[in-house]
Write a structure and sequence with these properties.
By secondary structure, the chain is an alpha/beta fold. The protein has three domains: about 375 residues, no CATH class; about 25 residues, no CATH class; about 150 residues, Glucose Oxidase, domain 1 (3-Layer(bba) Sandwich). The protein contains 25 helices and 16 strands.
């Protein structure tokens, strides 16, 4: 199967380029293995579409309850049924710097929609926790599960069936995937995300990382550390490093769900406000009442998912999307595996370096050409599907553009032809690396992923004795006692979704970085997560099956020789199959008595799927693949 794209811009002749055979094959593989599941999904949303717009089916009492608090002008418009009524689902809270600007968005959106004869209501709010606040704390064990709670809350918000379209206000780690998974259950409705943008640049990332490492080594005070952190995270807006939040934004653009070039415009700027107004009005042009009807469930197809995957690996994005993108795909009726990720990464060059994969922050990336330059380069080499649908009613190749503010109105222009800073973004002819930022690792310890975009070539192969711990907090004592002043592979087990909700393990990073800087060969392997801030130490993460489900990781002992080879894609312990199987598995550590709400998620831990299936408890009764069948499918 060959896919073609047109890179035609206004006033130019159309030129078609075949999509890369690897990208074409991965797309076809996803479609083939997902055929029955996708058919079931499309049938579901088609049935819902025949009943929409939902408020036409509501009784007078239902409708009266639904618009009781609206002003008379909005009530009249809603009653007429011939103008779009938009549901807003917001993740606003003023503890998350990225989400604090959303406080005023609903009123701005309502005003923009009234200007075109449409209306909006806040359909509901969803929880939004900050991994930066919970990092290293007990509350982090709720983080991954919060994604599925957000999906459920989104579904509850839209269950009133009052709306013709959906606007989603969310940015950060689990919030964007959760909103999208929930909205896909209402896939007969068009949907746009509206971002709020990153905070202005603060303390350079290199300086921040240096203070963190000095603190871990005992060479900086807590006051110095807090001052550095406060200078980095200093205002409203998204954190400026290229973690999961900013990867979310880039992937939304790659899927055509967010206005092009809109992700990294700073808050409280005239262009930011104009883009919010434009997005609010644009979603009304995509409803069933319009000629550009673009239901979310049909826009998010295999082409859109593969475009997101290509953007992920080409930019060196967050490893959290090795979980989230799979869960998003599953909610749209598709089955993706880490083998898809590995194949696409091997076919896609690394074109961006943004911290922790480089020293630039996301504002620098945007100034250097941002998503427009990145996507144009990928399209020019046939690495993205140009014919994928987008929220502007254009194929993806024509969707890629930049917004300009001209007399208070948005004008869409062609992005720069080339990067404005080759230290941040490059083209496919001179990439930072010939392959993308992710690898699949396989061997007698299971399957896992590794983010190699920040790992130098000299550190991509490590063979050393295991140091086994059951908590990231245990590493500090070993470090301070000098027991880690040697080559070692740190094994952190019982950190998977079923064990404790799969928290991120960033307390390990400064310590392991310090050991690496001392000249020791070190690596990390774990069934937990490291996410978008994965750094220069090689880390095999998301190992499945996890230790809590009798995975091999639970049979590793101190001193076992482990080899992590990111170049060959292997992860092995130097034991025969019979030796490993004969060992008694380790006993999980006792649960912490401080629950921080974790006791409410015991049912989620009991039925959650493994990391390669998206680590979700939403589809527990309808999993299509187990570890064994995934391995059989992709072998």
């Amino acid at each position: 199967m060959l896919f073609y794209y047109s890179n035609k811009h206004p006033g130019e002749a159309s030129v078609s380029t075949p999509v890369s055979p690897i990208i074409s094959k991965v797309t076809a593989d996803i479609e083939r293995r997902s055929r029955h599941l996708r058919e079931e999904y499309l049938t579901m949303i088609d049935v819902m579409a025949r009943q929409a717009p939902g408020r036409e089916q509501l009784s007078c009492g239902n409708l009266a309850h639904g618009f009781a608090a609206c002003n008379e002008t909005d009530k009249s418009a809603i009653k007429l049924m011939d103008a779009a009524h938009v549901g807003i689902v917001t993740a606003f809270n003023d503890m998350l710097s990225a989400h604090q600007p959303y406080e005023t968005y609903p009123q701005q959106i309502k005003a923009a929609l009234r200007a075109v004869g449409s209306t909006a209501q806040v359909a509901g709010g969803v929880p939004a926790m900050c991994d930066g606040v919970t990092q290293g704390q007990a509350g982090m064990e709720l983080s991954l599960f919060s994604r599925d709670v957000i999906a459920q809350a989104t579904a509850v918000s839209l269950s009133h069936q009052m709306f013709d379209a959906v606007l989603l206000l969310g940015i950060c780690d689990k919030i964007v995937p959760g909103l999208l998974i929930g909205a896909l259950q209402f896939g007969h409705l068009p949907c746009l995300f509206i971002p709020a943008g990153p905070m202005p640049s603060g303390l350079p990332n290199k300086e921040k990382a240096a203070v963190r490492q000095r603190f871990a080594e005992g060479n900086a005070t807590r006051e110095e550390l807090l001052q550095a952190e406060s200078a980095s995270y200093h205002s409203a807006g998204t954190c400026t490093f290229y973690g999961t939040a900013n990867t979310n934004q880039l992937l939304l653009e790659a899927m055509g769900l967010q206005l092009p070039g809109a992700s990294f415009v700073n808050p409280d700027s005239p262009l930011r406000d104009a883009l919010t107004d434009y997005a609010a009005q644009q979603v009304t042009r995509l409803t069933a009442k319009s000629r550009l009807y673009t239901p979310l469930g049909k826009q998010i197809d295999a082409r859109a998912l593969v475009n997101a995957l290509v953007a992920l690996v080409a930019s060196g994005g967050s490893t959290n999307h090795c979980i989230h993108l799979i869960a998003i795909a599953r909610s749209a009726g598709y089955v993706m595996t880490w083998s898809d990720f590995d194949a696409v990464s091997q076919a896609t060059p690394l074109l961006a370096r943004v911290y922790p994969n480089g020293q630039a922050d996301i504002n620098h990336f945007h100034a250097a050409g941002g998503t427009g330059v990145l996507f144009q380069n990928l399209l020019s080499d046939g690495l993205m599907h140009s014919d994928a649908q987008t929220c502007r009613g254009l194929p993806f190749s024509d969707f890629v553009s930049e917004p300009r503010l001209v007399d208070a109105d948005i004008s869409w222009v062609r992005p720069p032809e080339v990067s404005l800073d080759n230290n941040v973004i490059r083209d496919t002819k001179a990439p930072f690396a010939e392959e993308g930022g992710l690898r699949l690792l396989e061997g007698n310890l299971g399957r896992s992923v590794i983010k190699v975009s920040a790992v130098s070539a000299a550190h991509r192969v490590v063979e050393a004795p295991a140091v086994v711990i059951d908590s990231q907090h245990a590493l500090q004592g070993l470090y301070e006692s000098g027991q880690l002043n040697r080559d070692c592979v740190v094994v952190v087990r019982f950190q998977g979704p079923m064990a404790n909700g799969m928290p991120e393990l960033h307390k390990l990073t400064p310590l392991l970085s310090s050991l690496q800087d001392k000249g020791y060969a070190v690596a990390l392997i774990t069934d937990g997560r490291m996410s978008g801030a994965s750094g220069k130490v090689p880390a095999a993460i998301h190992i499945t099956p996890e230790a809590a489900t009798n995975g091999p990781l639970g049979r590793i002992r101190d001193g076992d020789i482990i080899t992590l080879d990111a170049n060959k894609g292997t992860l092995r312990v130097a034991l025969s199959e019979s030796e490993l199987a004969a060992r008694e598995p380790a006993t999980p550590p006792d649960a912490d008595q401080v629950t921080v709400g974790r006791n409410l998620f015991s049912a989620a831990r009991d039925q959650v799927s493994n990391a390669e299936e998206g680590a979700s408890f939403l589809f527990a009764t309808t999993h299509q693949f187990t570890d064994q069948t995934i391995l059989a499918e992709v072998s």
